[in-house]
Amino acid sequence: MSPCDPPEGWREARNLLCVRLDNMGDVLMTTPALRALKAARADRRLTLLASRSGAAVAPHVRDVDDVIVYEAAWMKNAASPPERFHATMQQLRERRFDAAVIFTVYSQSALPAALLCHAAGIPRVLAYSRENPYHLISDWAREIEPLPAPRHEVQRQLDLVATIGARASDPHLSFSVEDADQAGLDTVLRAHGISLPPEFVLAHCGATAESRRYPAALFAQAIDMVAGAGECVILTGSPDEKTLVDEVMARSCDPRRLVNLAGTLTLGEFGALIARAGLLISNNSGPVHIAAALGTPIVDLYALTNPQHTPWEVPHRLLYRDVPCKYCYRSACPLGHHACLSAVAPSQVAQAAFELLESRAGNRPPIMIKAA
């Protein structure tokens, strides 16, 4: 399908279901497409069907009017019991949606979600598919296989909604930080006796997939170099990542120079902290896309599991080692060596951080470090 005027039925579609069943970062990379769908009709209402992880970001996406949580068995998240499929189908049927848009990454199939929408009686469904969906997808965006060239995930979804006439005037990611988030962050900082300097560095060592995590020992060395140059470094992580953050702290040569806020912030407070930071050092995970939405520069430790999820429309440095097994689309390294990340030297991470901080500061003198 090519960009065109809205096909029959889409111009009139006011009550729209947007299906995005993977993770928080995937939802964030869909926000420009959601904005385009909302802008196409002034009275359009968007309901997001998302995993628990993806639904967490919905309150910070102003184009989303409502959210339904569903852990789909065909996604890698924890699956809901089979009866939940039928309960969700009934919930969707009761909402009487005019149409649905199913957003997937290249390696996912839209057909299970299309079956759910079909069973719920949703008359129009837009989605990518490499297989012929027959009656499951009314507006089929044919996907070429094999992939001819990498296409960023944000552009992939913008191209999808453009086929029904929805175009975004602003392609940036969306994540809203409210006054309550700022106030909550200030409360947490006071409780920990932390006074933030005008410029500080955030370091986020977690990621949902093991294949996308820079080794803790190397992460500790990298942030030690940054802190050793006089930068204030704050470590963050979800409650589930607190053990990993504690390991990084334990491997630091001088953990007294580091601030550990893992497990203490709500998502909104975390966004407020990212918005104030001069830089984020992170594995390629949800925080990278929050930082991109908020305009905070990023040093992205980018495992070569796939090429489509780089930071969007924000100053950044991608750090990886090119390997023959790249673009494996796996959550764990299938060869066990993790070379695309473990071969990145901590000195490279620190140097990339200094370059971005220097660029942001303008007249700041450069900091050079000697590799071990």
TrEMBL record:
GO terms for cellular component: cytosol. The keyword Iron-sulfur does not apply. InterPro entries: Glyco_trans_9 (IPR002201), LPS_LOS_Heptosyltrfase (IPR051199). Signal peptide: none annotated. One of its GO terms (biological process) is lipopolysaccharide core region biosynthetic process. The keyword Oxidoreductase does not apply. This is Glycosyl transferase. It comes from Bordetella genomosp. 9.
